[in-house]
Write a structure and sequence with these properties.
about 40% helix, alpha/beta, 9-stranded parallel sheet, globular, two-stranded antiparallel sheet
């Protein structure tokens, strides 16, 4: 069976800032099975969690800062309010400047993984294109798979993998069960240019979904920026993925 389809809510951040509840209701009406929050506008996390539940939307994971230092308690509390166990963060671009920077980055992530585990959480890394910058003769992403604690999973952003010069299907296949969540986006594979609705750009999602096999538990649409109406692009992405049997919707 195809993996269920969620929406990374960052895609609709402008609409959410204007009317959070109405925007989430529209996401549910589109047919998305779940959502992945990344911050809240004019609403508390607890209120948002109740809203998701009322609309039948599952929260597959949440994007946060690393659970370290002053942010630790905030991240743990947020996960509890949303009743999720997967918390996800991203790496800074400067972490791939050289090997020393990369090792320091991995040490910090491994500390965060230990903290997350102590509180019943699993930490995930969401990539951009800069993880594929060569570091000491190898793509930085390859070093991550070796230097990070095996308990850290990868939320593979398929678009950024290809934009970084690698192949998303091959990366997903190599990671296996360590890649339970996939970000699905489309466009020209140029970080300087706007994206498109899924199915309207350069990405070929058939091989990506086949490579994921039974290991991808969720496909998550994310569109950082697009020309035209974002909500319409989000709806077209849902239609493309479900109509082609690449993901499972609620309708």
């Amino acid at each position: 069976m195809a993996a269920p389809l969620a929406l990374q809510l960052y895609s609709l951040r402008d609409d959410l800032a204007r009317n959070y509840k109405a925007t989430i209701a529209r996401v549910a009406e589109m047919g998305y099975v779940g959502v992945e929050p990344a911050g809240f506008s004019g609403i508390t996390a607890e209120e948002a969690g109740n809203l998701f539940a009322d609309l039948g939307l599952e929260v597959c994971s949440v994007h946060t800062q690393l659970p370290l230092g002053k942010q630790k308690n905030e991240v743990i509390e947020l996960a509890g309010q949303l009743e999720v166990t997967r918390v996800i963060s991203s790496t800074p671009r400067e972490g791939f400047a050289d090997m020393d920077s990369l090792k320091a980055l991995c040490e910090r992530w491994n500390q965060a993984c230990e903290t997350a585990s102590e509180h019943g959480l699993t930490l995930g890394l969401h990539n951009h294109w800069w993880e594929f910058t060569p570091v000491d003769g190898r793509p930085g992403f390859e070093w991550l798979t070796e230097l990070l604690d095996p308990g850290i999973f990868f939320q593979v952003d398929t678009y950024w993998v290809n934009t970084g010069g690698s192949d998303a299907a091959r990366v997903i296949e190599s990671l296996g069960e360590r890649a339970p969540l996939l970000h699905i986006k489309d466009g020209p594979c140029d970080p300087a240019l706007p994206m498109t609705a899924v199915g309207e750009g350069k990405m070929d999602f058939g091989p990506i979904v086949r490579a994921a096999g039974d290991t991808a538990e969720w496909l998550i649409v994310e569109i950082d920026r697009v020309e035209g109406d974002m909500a319409a692009a989000v709806a077209r992405s849902y239609q493309y993925l479900t109509a082609n049997g690449l993901a499972r919707g609620a309708r």
